[in-house]
Amino acid sequence: MAAGRTLKELADYLGGTVAGDEGKTVIGVASLDDATVDQVTFLANPKYASKVATTGAGAVVLPPGADRHGRNAIVVANPYLAFAKMLTLFHVAPRPSRGIMEGARIGDGVTVGADATIYPGATIGAGVTLGDRVTIHPGAVVYEEVSVGDDVTIHANVVVYQGCRIGNRVTIHAGTVIGSDGFGYAPDGEGYYKIPQLGIVSIEDDVEIGANTTIDRAALTATVIGRGTKIDNLVQIAHNCVIGQNCTIVSQVGISGSTRLGNRVTLAGQVGVAGHLSIGDNVMVGAKSGIPGNIPSGSLVSGIPAFSHREWLRSMAVVPKLPDLKKTVAALEKKVAELEARLASE
Amino acid sequence: MAAGRTLKELADYLGGTVAGDEGKTVIGVASLDDATVDQVTFLANPKYASKVATTGAGAVVLPPGADRHGRNAIVVANPYLAFAKMLTLFHVAPRPSRGIMEGARIGDGVTVGADATIYPGATIGAGVTLGDRVTIHPGAVVYEEVSVGDDVTIHANVVVYQGCRIGNRVTIHAGTVIGSDGFGYAPDGEGYYKIPQLGIVSIEDDVEIGANTTIDRAALTATVIGRGTKIDNLVQIAHNCVIGQNCTIVSQVGISGSTRLGNRVTLAGQVGVAGHLSIGDNVMVGAKSGIPGNIPSGSLVSGIPAFSHREWLRSMAVVPKLPDLKKTVAALEKKVAELEARLASE
Amino acid sequence: MAAGRTLKELADYLGGTVAGDEGKTVIGVASLDDATVDQVTFLANPKYASKVATTGAGAVVLPPGADRHGRNAIVVANPYLAFAKMLTLFHVAPRPSRGIMEGARIGDGVTVGADATIYPGATIGAGVTLGDRVTIHPGAVVYEEVSVGDDVTIHANVVVYQGCRIGNRVTIHAGTVIGSDGFGYAPDGEGYYKIPQLGIVSIEDDVEIGANTTIDRAALTATVIGRGTKIDNLVQIAHNCVIGQNCTIVSQVGISGSTRLGNRVTLAGQVGVAGHLSIGDNVMVGAKSGIPGNIPSGSLVSGIPAFSHREWLRSMAVVPKLPDLKKTVAALEKKVAELEARLASE
Description:
Three copies of one chain form a homotrimer. In chain A, 17% of the residues lie in helices and 28% in strands. Chain A has a domain at 5-91: MurE/MurF, N-terminal domain (Udp-n-acetylmuramoylalanyl-d-glutamate--2,6- Diaminopimelate Ligase, Chain: A, domain 1). A twelve-stranded mixed β-sheet of chain A has the order 8-11-14-17-20-25-28-31-34-37-39-40. A ten-stranded parallel β-sheet of chain A has the order 9-12-15-18-21-26-29-32-35-38, with no helix packed on it. Chain A is built from five helices and 40 strands. Chains in contact: A-B, A-C, B-C. Chains A and B meet through strand 22, strand 23, strand 40, helix 4 and helix 5 of A and helix 3 and helix 5 of B. Chains A, B, C: Residues 26-89 form the UDP-3-O-[3-hydroxymyristoyl] glucosamine N-acyltransferase non-repeat region domain.
């Protein structure tokens, strides 16, 4: 189904150069082990370099300096990125627009851009604005007055609460909830009085959000997800958080209210971040860590509570030896007491 | 849109007293920094007391004894609670009842109270009872024989399994699942035999539950969420748990089966509680902690496994120094052995 | 409603033998404390053995060797399993097939087996195959080209993405998402380029999956959930994972990409497993643990990072004593220095 491409066309698409037969045509991409003569493969990990000689592929995408073993090759700076781009080129079919389908529920005053697809069973509330080439899957519910940019895909059973803003080229996977009330209550003596959550969530361009994630609306202003940030499944982002650009937030992370992340922050799986913190640019946090305080830019931290990842590794190596260490110290105490007694008696 | 209120009216609503112009009218609430002459602001944190002199607000809500700097003021015991109440008064518009809308799916024998709103795409199973002023959003699915009290809001794509009971003034946010089967199996040699989960979930009055949370039905009786308890997003409450009144359960907490919480318990984010435990009243558990045993009332605990929070802080301060501690002990061992050898040779 | 059974019939169903009146009829099952003369009860925990003498039940299911105190009894190897089977027999009513109900959305080329129930508001995409006796609840969305086996129950608002395969006798609870895109991106200098996720999820026979869980599709091949495995609520299973047979994966566990679990693995609540790992058969991981490396078959581990559970318990017992240990070591250092000084001066 995918059209064939010559190596020359492929090299132009990838920003690389051909070594070998520029006119050779390939129709797909596969691994070094699995590729056939009609397919292109790639060498991303140097430890597989010898497979370039033996792969059945018709061509190999290689980094500069790698031995092409006489094979047709495309030389690019980043073969793994090239692999992702070739997968897209060969194997991702654009979904044709199907328009507003019968059974979609469209509220009053909704505007829909060109070439949209709104499936049966999707609900679009009054006053919503949808951009061009938007796809809204069945069961998704977009409350009133939401604005959605161009080229956005909202998967089945996503919910976007009223007034939230979604930029361009955003994908939201199934079951995710955007704009539910922040968790804010004022103690009133016996119980809790709900603090109205009057703000919104604003999702900037090029964000992707996984399945069953929750992002709460701000109390008064906006919870912000910065441009290019990628969020995995089952992540919790509380009210008033401001997440920077190109962050990577892995599954089951929780970020408490009013915390700000810089750009290019990576939070590994199941990390928890306390509220009202400032996390700098390029910070990396190891899996399952707990962040109780501000983190300066460029830090790599782990642990509960977190400190330097390198030091954490060294400390954790001691933990299994703690019972022995305790015994050793008890024995030393006894020996020192004996030495002291002996010297005192001399 | 919100109607203006005189300071006298506002003070009566808040249970406070006016100092200054009782007839002054305000039309909204904003922060000390942002408020304008038509708005009221509030002083909740004493460190901002000097801003009372300079705020642009037309009036300030203050605690007793705070300097009003000659401004119009309303004196109340709890300005933060007053802020929440004023937000509600000025900025939360009641949603007018829209009735059972076309496209709502209503099963046989359903009873619906006065002034309800059931949106298109909501599904109400046979035999369900809904109270007055109930709002059921699109995509919510209420299985058979559920009972729902008055003034309940069920957001989009919530699922309530059969037979569950929901009290009055309960709000359930989008995507939450109430009454799915508890995780119970009997090993049968090779694999697992499912233990039928025949009980229900009972949610008492004034509970709010966040988005994408899960509360499992009991095996035989009822999983209970006590009156006034607030549950955040992505929380797991397993079968047969009994949660007390006015508890605060923060995002991503997990509570294993048959555990009982007292009243006013606070579980911070990502806490895990083992099964069949008893957690006393007023217990507070620090973020990410793991609770393996019963906790007496009034305790403040942290850690995995958890112990006294104060002692946990002191222990965690030692963790980064464990490698040094281990080296110090090794050096001491060597020195003590040398001392022993020297004394032995004398 | 449930038909009565003689003890003889019940013993045959359970694979046990009657002691006492084989013709005695019972109509339900209840606990030792609650059962009445028309009900059967069971003794699973030896510490309640004395209640066999005093229970009001008409018969007791017992393990071999237990004293029946003259009561009617059924002797079985595993009374707890028998309890689960009796609950099913007496108290789980089969749901009669209701066919494809009006308001169900069925795509082109869908095939549906015998005796299915597809509720109003369910969406079945084009080319989907559904087996016999399948139940699809309201709001569930099955994308194109999914195949579903016999005797499968898909609860409300579940989403299954395109092309995924579901075996026989599988139950998926509300809000769970099967087949959302894996979290894969190639850094492209400034930001991230999405790696197309072209594989599927394959769920084998006899799997049960809880509510609001997420299982991502593979990048190229299949994420696999092995036969008989039970998965709780809010679990995350990342792309390319292969989960073995009869595993037990408790709530809020997260398993990173490309990790393989053997058979009969138990992961307790909130465990995290890193990516590209191999976890052997019969491994048990304690609650909240973090697994950074491969685990050999038969291991029982805990901790972050995890090591032997038995050693972890011993280490954790030292943690609260770390401040004292540190003080003791400091005191020893001082004493040893004094001893050294004294000996040096002699």
